[in-house]
Structures are given as C-alpha cells and as structure tokens.
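pipeline/complex-builder :: batch 7 item 3
reading input block
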Amino acid sequence: MAHDKRPLSPDLQIYKPQLTSVLSISHRVSGIALSVGTLLLVSWLLAAAAGPQAYSTVQGFMHSWLGLLLMLGWTFSFFFHLCNGIRHLVWDAGYGFELRTIYASGWTVVAASAALTVAAWFSSFVVMG
Amino acid sequence: MFIRSSDQLPSVTVLRRFPVPRNFNVSTESRIERGKTWHAPADATRVKSFEIYRYDPDSGQNPRIDTYEVDLNTCGPMVLDALIAIKNEIDPTLTFRRSCREGVCGSCSMNIDGTNWLACTRFISDTMEPATIYPLNHLRVIKDLVPDLTQLFAQYGLIEPWLQTTTPEPEKERLQSPEDRGKLDGFYECILCFCCTSGCPSHWWNGDRFLGPAVLLQSYRWLIDSRDEAAGDRLDDLEDPFRLYRCHTILNCTRTCPKQLNPGKAIAAIKKMIVQRRS
Amino acid sequence: MRSPLSRARGLGSSRDGFQHWWMQRVTAVALIPLTLWFAASLIALTGSDYNTFIAWLKAPVVTVFMVLLLIALCHHMGLGLRVVVEDYAHSDWAKVPAVVAIRCACFALAVVGIFATLRIAFDR
C-alpha cells in the first residue's frame, strides 16, 4: 500500500538540543548510571560481610585510577539526579512551569550539581588528611 | 541562556543538533539524500539560502534536501513569505500547508532551524544561514513539508473535545462566572498546530499510545470547564501508563509553543487531579 | 484497514498507572534524606580501615538507615528502569521479559543488600 512507503520525517537527527531536552535525557542517563552504582554498592556490602580480604580487594579497586574515575562520575550523577529530582518533585506539585523558571531552575541544578560534587570530593580529601 | 518566553530566540547556539549521525536509526525509505541547489539570479543583492526537505511520492525516490537561494528584496519578512516566493518564482513543485498568514490557523507549522514554529510568524532575519526547514518531526510525510496529521487528530477525537452533560439543557445559555471562564485562559487558545506534540521525544517513541501535549492540553481545557459534567469519565480515560503517564516532564512542548501556551503545566495539573480524586 | 480513531483508542484506557507514578515520587522523597546521609557518611569514612567501617555499620541507627536506603533505592531504581524499558522497547517479546527481569533483579538486589547489612550488624 502506498502509505507504507511514506518516509518518516526526522526527529532526533535534526531537532535542536535545548536545556529542556538535554537536562531530561541527562536525568535518565544519570539514573541508569546510579543503577549500576547500586549494583556496586550491594557488592561492596557483600564484600564487607564476607571478611577483611574481600573488603580490601574492593577497596583496592575503588582507589585505583579507574575506580576513582568511576567514583567521580558516580558522585556527579548522584548530585545531578538529586538536584534535578527535586526540580521534578517541585513540578509534580504544580509549581515552576513558567519558561523563565524552567530555565532558571535548570541552570541552578547544573551549577548546584557541579558545586556539590566539588564540595564532596574536597571534604573527602580533607577527611583523609 | 535564560529564556523568558517561547518566542525568544537564544543568543548563542552551542549545538544545532544532537551528535548522532544524520540518518541515525532511520528506515531505508526515510533516508535523506543530497538534492539540488537553486542559485539566485546574478543581479540579486540580499541573498539568503534555505535548505528545505523535499519528498516526491510519485518519483519513488528517497527524501532529499534542496537548497534555494532567495533574493530577500523579492519577498516579505517571514519564512512563509520566502516559501511562497520560492513556489512562485523558483520551484512551483514546493508543497506546504498555509492559510491565514498571521499565526492563528496552525497550518504552516514546521521545523525551522531545529525547533518547531509557525512559518508565518518566524522572521527570516531570525533564522540561521542557511536556514533549515523540515516537516514536523516523526510523522509520515505526504509530500515535501506536508506531514500526515491523521493520527494526531484521531487522538484529539479520542478525548471527546465537546461539552458533556447529563443535566437537561437550560432554556437559555449555560451560565458560567467570569472567574470560571478565566480558568480557560491559556488553554482555549490552542490552534492545534501540533508543534508541541511533534517536538516531544516521548511522542516520538510512543506516539501510537501517548496522547501528546496538544491533546492533553485540550483534555485539561475540558476537565476544568465548569459547564462540563464528565470530569470523572475523562480522567478514567486518561489514567493510563501510556496515554498520560508517558509524559516525563521533558518540557520541549512549553519551550516550542508558538502561541506561548503551557502544555507541561496542564499535564501536571491533570496528574494532580488524579492524585486529588484518590485522597 | 482500521479507522484512525480505532487505532488511537487501541485497547482502551487501563485506568491504572497512578500507583507506579506515586510510588516513584514517594521513594524519591524518602531517598533525599537517606542518600544525603549515606553520601555524608561515605565522606566521613574516607580512608578508614575495615574495622572502623564494620563498627560504624554495627550501630543500630546506621543499620536501620542502611536497610531503609536499600529498600527505597531498589524500589525507585526498579520503577525508573521499568519506565526506560517501556519507553524504548515496543515489541512484547522484548518488553515483558525485560520488565519481569528488572522487577526480580531489584527485589533480589534488595534482599542481598539487606542480608549483607544484617550479617555485619549481628556478627559477633
């Protein structure tokens, strides 16, 4: 039938990335990253329950350069998902839908996530001495 | 950076499109190919290029991008004026919908420079060089810039956008206070151009079941109409993991509405109504 | 040869979907203090050895918070991943097994995590 052969107009291939769509997909990507992190969290707890040897293996990996990189990615994902999640909860309550508020809150979330990540890592270094 | 209203254009464009291949995840019949270039006459002074999506259903070929160089001295200030000038003077086969030329009918909605807007209210001076014009996103293309809106209008009919009452008709008109009439402001003005729905990624991936912002905005318009008596049935029909809850508050809809309406807010209000009737 | 309205109507409204949406928000609200507490604890525990960590986890408040965190986290995660699968997978043979697998995996993950926490807490 002729209708089956009609082409589909492009969507993701040509639509302009805007703060709205970019923060939304980042929220989803950070959520998936955190899900992987939860797996690692549970395996870390299991290792601690298994004894000091298993625990030190996991700790060793966490302090390797790959582990630290993953931790950095995980902390940023965590703070971003947290701040944007609060923004989502405010929307669910019905507030903050004016376009100027959407953009202001969006940029605030990005800045707050970066600041909180830096603060967390800085405090971590301070605690370690 | 800080957008205050949907008709405000950003001062800086960092990314024109997502970093995916041009024909990413596209079926064979939808792959876009390079088309021809129509050069402006040699004596043209103010020349502007338009890259326009073309598709001819009779040719059996794939869609392509044709580039038209238009002398801005020969056409009006809006993108629609440029399209009409191209059709009149350069290429009469260019096909697009249009009617009122003043932003009230919703016919000329299309994707201009990556975002959905009405061609008759977008100034040429606000477009990039070259300006890129595509049909509304993720819809079957009938020809050139004319998408098939049948499914979108079917979804609109699904929500039964008319007054539903059980009490007998009054002798004169159904009364409504100015306050209740005021609640419809910001929702009745929708011209069903479908810029929002075709710009919603959730509707791209689940458009057969998710109703989309335009239809949900109109269903909210009927939910809050004080004269309507079927709010319960309307909410029953909406409360579905796909019809309503595919909305993840992406808010591309509010960003792109050419009439400055707020579908995202209306959808959040519908979700709140569903919470309210359970508590 | 279906009419557009029939295709749009599909199998009708399931009159459901609120529970999933609501629990996502409830677990999210619960997770705000729980995850902030967890992040702060992790920072405070940086560079500590095995025994310090075990002693910290044995404290009753910490054990309870950890169990609550695991429950809320696995539930929130399961609901979120289910939404992702429903968005992108369209054929039934892809969607249904994936949703079932995610449900089971999250439940198992919560059980394993709680087991490990309680094992540490009650080990003499």
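note: The radius of gyration of chain C is 20 Å.
queue -> next item
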